[in-house]
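Q: Structure for this?
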Amino acid sequence: MKLISGGVCAAKGFKANGVHCGIRKNRVKRDLALIVSDVPCTAAATYTTNLVKGAPLTVTKQNISNGYAQAVICNSGNANTCNANGIEIANLTCSLLAEKLGISASDVVVASTGVIGQPLDITPIKNGIPSLIDGLSYDGCDYAAEAIMTTDTVKKEVAVEFTVGGKTCKMGGIAKGSGMIHPNMATMLVFITTDCKISAEMLQKALSSDIKETFNMVSIDGDTSTNDMVTVLANGMAENDEIVSDGDDFKAFMKALNTVTVNLCRMIASDGEGATKLLECKVSGGKTLDIAKTVAKSVICSSLTKAAMFGADANWGRVLCAIGYSGACVDVDKIDVYFSSSKGTIAVCKNGSGVDFSEEKAKEILLEKEIDIIVDLNDGEFSSKAWGCDLTYDYVKINGDYRT
Amino acid sequence: MKLISGGVCAAKGFKANGVHCGIRKNRVKRDLALIVSDVPCTAAATYTTNLVKGAPLTVTKQNISNGYAQAVICNSGNANTCNANGIEIANLTCSLLAEKLGISASDVVVASTGVIGQPLDITPIKNGIPSLIDGLSYDGCDYAAEAIMTTDTVKKEVAVEFTVGGKTCKMGGIAKGSGMIHPNMATMLVFITTDCKISAEMLQKALSSDIKETFNMVSIDGDTSTNDMVTVLANGMAENDEIVSDGDDFKAFMKALNTVTVNLCRMIASDGEGATKLLECKVSGGKTLDIAKTVAKSVICSSLTKAAMFGADANWGRVLCAIGYSGACVDVDKIDVYFSSSKGTIAVCKNGSGVDFSEEKAKEILLEKEIDIIVDLNDGEFSSKAWGCDLTYDYVKINGDYRT
């Protein structure tokens, strides 16, 4: 497997585009994205567990309930959530697009991201659809990736090439992250495409399994969005024998999917609102997988740990504190903690107590842009990883006045 | 019942003091506090649920296991947590103090707050105890309240006068709050004294019941400290008939206790690290008490809601979002949300959808220092309150470089 370029257009038969249609009147930025497959695809998705759900999620869930889809449309600037006519607008978006594309409205995945609770006007979307379709191209991923951004500062796209049953397959994805990121079950907005041939059932199985270790292990600010959604479209144009059960082919597919999702997780975490650093918490020695995951997530979510990392302060007591209140059953007196970056690794806590370490060396390590917080629970064989970012002045600035 | 002055010295027979003994070498501030009753007291306490527990909590728990105590000693500047010799140092603190006071070491409540994982040197404590005792006085509460502060910007003390069985009783408390505040079961450091006569059993019952609605409903940053502790000492000098069971006297005591604790909660929340505003989330219409509490706590903990309040931005979608991911079973389509302050009240969401409101009026309301976020679930009879503060640049600043 190798990383390649092209994002959601890397796989055969996928076109994409993004245009500025004017959903946010005060900002000229592409705000409407489209991904279309030349042929129908099997489709899988996961959604936020937030009880307050964006209207597009309800519509998408209904549309892909048969396991098939062919196009994805997504606007930024308005979440179409907590609006009395939200479902109607989301359905109308699908039918307007489907009509122009000559496909069924029930083959459209629709998504929205932005402010909650402001009515979404269909007019700019309706007016934007013709140019959105006109500009579709096999190398249009960049435009789509840009159009789904809100406070994201960089486009997030990745693609891989892998082999299934002797056939070369490709898979790529784009993501929108930044704030209100603490996915549970699904996540932010992620659109993945592949030309691998795989049944809808196996595609859903692959996605549902993968997100538990990837998107659900990312947190920017502990707030689980109302509009989180990950979708995968597989159009089968690589002409491999369809994956319809477990086995080597499914394993190869899972590995490709995991490479795409982990890359997107890291991009989302490192571009968290206001973030200056990517944090990865690597937990080993857990008695169970659940314990390792709970500990990793708790550390990555701790505001105090995040602020300490912003300040390049080796305040490991906050890591211990976050492990202690995580709810995971751990033996505190066995825990070792290290900080690590490209500048080296330093032990700061052994058996639950502090050890002497060079503050100078620790500072040098923590001034880097990518920091690993390594926790060894010394209590079993299970490991986990979680991703997050530091808590900075800019997070407060961005969120103190996001809406107005 | 009326509010009075005097804090922990308001009740008959309680002296207090606070001195600078030099635990933090780089900061000249009172760092050692003492509260002593003229006679033995019944005692009750609750402690953090963090698995990583400060050594002083273990020692205090042991000391008051018989239901009695007579003195409280507390240092700031070092949490005496995650130190290999922590228990030894905490015990030594008790015995050094007890010897000079002529009481038993097992009648001492010991507490610490400050940095985790740095060995606590007994020398400054040992050297500080004589002047700490010399300076004890019946109006020394201010010094003790100051000595337990870390990043707190104001002293937190309160006292009330109430009547039990025809006798005038007094009760007062001091608190240390500020950061790493998200209590679960117990909380930050709170020391309460009363001259009301009450059995150890009923005292513990009163405290354990009260904190569920008070300290456990406060959150500054979602981080549950390793050293949270609330203690109450009751010395019986008001000469009321001892409270040994439920009834009117116990009710009067509970009401006094609740007045003290709610006042301290509000002080702790409004002096949260970096806070510019006190937030109170008032939830009504819950189907169960648990639902009302879960919703109130989730809203008060949401980083995005907190940052919006800092920016005086009426971004109510974040309130809905936090309710949706709280885990509480609510009917989203019934929820109403209001923002309120001394400048008025404004409805922003009805039946789960946005309503038109004046942004200007909302801004005027949210620019105040005390904001109520009012949520009506319209689904039952249960209510709850939670307290917190806004998320500001200064929170990040304080915690980006707290330790070094």
